[in-house]
């Protein structure tokens, strides 16, 4: 049976759009989750929204909405963002859902019944935006909130309390016996010394607002944020319901990881395990607390307008450069700074130059020296080859170790070290010199094979990180699915090679000045004209070069040697032309006969798997569907412009 793996993000406050800081956590978890999937684990990835609290109520009022309408809108926006980032979550929990509220009510009553929660009175310094009480010693200057720096007010009210002090010793023992419960080590030490100072019982209910889960036995109180929020990790698994199979499988499974930002570590490292001890639920999770993305001049702050949102970055640069930057720039145990210069440099140097160029150069050489086809060579022993092979194997291991320890930035560095080594291999073996000497053809063949084999390994390791580029890499190298798996990470698994005849660079180089200026304006919230990157623009005369007409499909059949291809005979009036298209997963030949489709006539004819193709049928595509463009009123040969 497969080992299980359950990973969670914090649930986000619906206090507005999510910025690249919160987005980071979700991308990080997505990458780890995809990695575990690649390794063959049975994974479950949970994210969601933390939708109760006074602040939500206040913001909704300001917007003229009910709190429910407000959180519905934000949840919708958040899901759209995760879609845009291609986040593969399995469940999206919202604390306003019935499945969650029922469990929180039960948990609260149980803790109350067994006297782990008692009624008292709370007086403290309260920061409304952060929804947190602080003791006097924790406050900043002039009684300001130690987290956000805004003023606090003294609030006194009846409140239920969770007995943290009762569990202090047990918690310290637990942390001691489970040395990897909290990582990084430095954060664990902070938690331990905090506990050792002595824990105050925690206020867990409020009477001053009502946007929350009502306490069953005393409805004047709503459950205060942390018992509500933390329970999401098990309510989403059906804990305490008739169908708790997910809870049994994943919570009690092999590996459970909560990824949190450093600011909420304490809640997860102290309150949550104590809640679980009191509820007699096993503490199966491990915590990883990451640092923060900062701006050059300090914390990201919505109120000060110093904040970066992911959407405009993705729209302008694409998904992969954004994912890459976020994952690569934040060190394992520290903070990172988002700067325009670094963003452009990472995209240009790491992605376009080092990685993109390696792929492009390799394909171009195989086209030039071997007309895109290369047989698998006999193994040989040149020292350059051995070094490259060794480095590739070492990289797989180093990548795995780092990923298993959640050191994603370091794991990415390992891949790039192999990218550099592979580029160096080209310099060492000088294929352009080998190509001049017919006797060196076998050497040249071996060098090309080794390059593709190293790049294939790089592509597999990149699958959890660069979603589109890794797919494109396999496509351009024509690498079949069974050679894209973790199990296929063995040197020499690759057979004969047939690369694309028309390689496209996967990462265009950015113009440094333009893009740094664009990003600086974006960071300063200046209105930025939406302008595509120069290299993507074409002139109308470029478009006019295409000869596009209506073609009527007269005959269609499956390609004899390739499952994915169809071969059509199409009347374009000037002649009946034969076109090969990769659409057989979406259409049967019978469905296509009689269709009037859109055809590019003046593409250079090519042989595709041995069959001549004289043009291209246009089709639109998304992740699920492909649809051939077709017309009704027009006739074969009619021009399209
Ligand atoms: N609702 C609570 C979490 C409850 S979990 C049971 C919460 N929400 S939050 O929306 O304020 O923050 C969510 C996450 O975003 C936290 O892990 C926080 O550390 C993270 N980040 C917020 N700003 C960040 C950066 N600038 N950089 C990196 N992460 C940041 O807290």
Task: Provide a concise account of the structure shown.
With 641 residues, the protein is of the alpha/beta class.
Keywords:
641 residues; OB fold (Dihydrolipoamide Acetyltransferase, E2P); Isoleucyl-tRNA Synthetase, Domain 1; Rossmann fold; 21 helices; binds 5'-O-[(L-methionyl)-sulphamoyl]adenosine; alpha/beta; 3 domains
Describe the structure.
This protein is an alpha/beta fold. It is 42% helix and 18% strand. The strands form eight sheets. Strands 3-2-1-11-12-7 form a six-stranded parallel beta sheet, sandwiched between helices. Strands 17, 18, 19, 20, 23 and 26 form a six-stranded antiparallel beta sheet that branches. Strands 5-4-6-8 form a four-stranded antiparallel beta sheet. A hairpin with a 7-residue loop joins β17 (548-558) and β18 (566-571). The site of 5'-O-[(L-methionyl)-sulphamoyl]adenosine (MSP) has 19 residues, from α1, α7 and β11. 5'-O-[(L-methionyl)-sulphamoyl]adenosine binds at residues 10-13, 21-22, 24-25, 50, 229-230, 232, 260-261, 263-264, 292-293, 300.
> What structural category arises from helix and sheet content?
alpha/beta
Bound molecules: 5'-O-[(L-methionyl)-sulphamoyl]adenosine
Shape: elongated
Q: Summarize the main sheet.
A: 6 strands, parallel
Topology (SSEs and partners):
Blueprint: E1 4-8, H1 20-38, E2 42-49, H2 54-62, H3 67-84, E3 91-94, H4 98-113, E4 117-127, E5 132-134, E6 153-162, H5 168-177, E7 182-183, H6 185-196, E8 202-203, E9 205-206, E10 222-223, H7 225-230, H8 232-235, H9 245-251, E11 255-261, H10 265-279, E12 285-290, E13 293-294, H11 310-317, H12 319-329, E14 336-337, H13 340-370, E15 373-374, H14 383-404, H15 408-429, H16 431-434, H17 441-462, H18 467-477, E16 497-498, H19 512-523, H20 540-544, E17 548-558, E18 566-571, E19 576-581, H21 589-592, E20 596-600, E21 606-608, E22 611-613, E23 616-617, E24 619-621, E25 626-628, E26 639-640
Parallel strand pairs: 1-2, 1-11, 2-3, 7-12, 11-12, 13-14
Antiparallel strand pairs: 4-5, 4-6, 6-8, 9-10, 15-16, 17-18, 17-20, 17-26, 18-19, 20-23, 21-22, 24-25
Helix pairs in contact: 2-3, 11-12, 12-13, 13-15, 13-17, 13-19, 14-15, 14-17, 15-17, 17-18
The structure holds 5'-O-[(L-methionyl)-sulphamoyl]adenosine.
The site of 5'-O-[(L-methionyl)-sulphamoyl]adenosine (MSP) has 19 residues, from α1, α7 and β11.
